[in-house]
Amino acid sequence: MTRTNLVGELARHITLRQLQVFESVARLGSFTRAAEELYLAQPTVSMQLKKLADTISLPLFEQVGIRIHLTETGRELYTVCQEVFVNLTNLETKIADIKGVKSGLLKLAVITSSKYLIPHLLGQFGRLHPGIDFSLNVENRKHILERISRYEDDLCILGQPPPESEVEAHPLVPNPLVAMASRNHPLVGVPNIPLKRLLDETFILREPGSGTRDAINRLLISKGLPIPIARMEFGSNEAIKQAVVAELGISILSLHSLALEGTSGPIAILDVQGLPIQRYWYLVYPKNKKLSPVALAFLEFAKMEGENIAKRTKQKMEEIRKSRVYKNKK
Questions:
Q1: Rounded Cα distance, 219 and 198, in Å
Q2: pLDDT tens figures, 198-244
Q3: Counting C-beta atoms within 10 Å of the first and last residue's C-beta, which end of the chain has fewer, N or C?
Q4: How far is residue 176 from each of residues 216, 222, 257, measured CA to CA in Å?
């Protein structure tokens, strides 16, 4: 059978739905998780994959114990699937180009800490473009990087862009990390606390793999200090703040996480040498990805609005320095 005939045969019998199911199972390594992601019953997933394997006349997966692995044919098909879905995404973008920015879907993935920023940006942008819908995924850094590699979103917001040259990264908003404790903590009001002194305290930190945790570790390593063992680890800044209020320990988090508490809330910022850790949130997308008109419009809007937020962040840091947060306990 010639290549032309083979391609024609596959094109007549393979459906996009089958490829979508196969791609999900191959990526997740699980029939159950793929069924959950696609909102399908597991027997439906199995049936679609059986039809696909029957069409190709070769097995796509092999099972070793409880784990499934791609066969050589499966790996080849997975590569083709990724190309197909990237091309379909680019087609959607070109169609959106023709339609303009009046309507469409903006798919965003953002790190957990930026959830204090993103509602403001989406609210403002949504008022300017009421016909645009949003799909928002909130993940930690590790999962965001995985989503970028799979081209799952239009744009992503990260605290530390990947070092590879395959991405475009635009600085968006300052995201200073500050040390915080319950207002009753004995270090509240103490000026110029040595960074090493914090290591005597009990730490409550974000989970390993989060950008915040990585930034803390890099700072301590650069100062020749040991990395603290966390008493508690949470995937949520809000959970960490509640633990700090309950006097279970101290933490280092984004200044923006205290946006609602203000300078007189139950959490105080500690005056620590070497802090705040100066970081930024970045808008990131793959370099070879063609952005839709909606994504381009949001990118330009976010960069302009980011300048305003940066000014407000700087003002807030000045207010904190002058306030009683550092000087006195309540």
A1: 13
A2: 999 999 998 887 888 888 999 999 999 998 888 888 888 889 999 99
A3: N
A4: 12, 18, 10
pLDDT tens-digit readout, 304-321: 888 777 777 766 666 665
CB 96 within 8 A of CB 294: yes
Tokens of 96: 């959106």
What mean pLDDT, rounded, does the chain reach? 84
Looking at the fold, whether 264 and 153 belong to one and the same domain comes out as no
Q: Are residues 196 and 152 in the same domain?
A: no
Among 264, 257, 261, residue whose Cα is nearest residue 212: 257
161 & 285 share domain = yes
In sequence order, what DSSP letters do the residues of 219-277 get, joined into one string? HHHHTT-PPPPEEEEES-HHHHHHHHHTTS-BEEEEGGGGTTTGGGSSEEE--BTT-SB
Structural domains of the chain, count: 3
Residues 129 and 224 in one domain: no
Domain residues for the domain of 182 are: 177-279+319-327
| Type of residue at 71 | T
User: pTM for the complete prediction?
Assistant: 0.61
Q: How far apart are CA 91 and CA 123, in angstroms?
A: 28
CATH code of the domain in which 61 resides: 1.10.10.10
What one-character-per-residue DSSP string does 65-130 give?
Answer: TTEEEE-HHHHHHHHHHHHHHHHHHHHHHHHHHHH-SSSEEEEEEEEGGGGGTHHHHHHHHHHH-T
Residues of the chain with pLDDT below 50 are 1-6, 324, 327-330
57's tokens? 């006349």
* Same-domain check for residues 158 and 32: no
Give residue 288's identity as a one-letter amino acid code.
Answer: N
In a domain, 12, yes or no: yes
Pairwise CA distance, residues 238 & 102, whole Å: 36
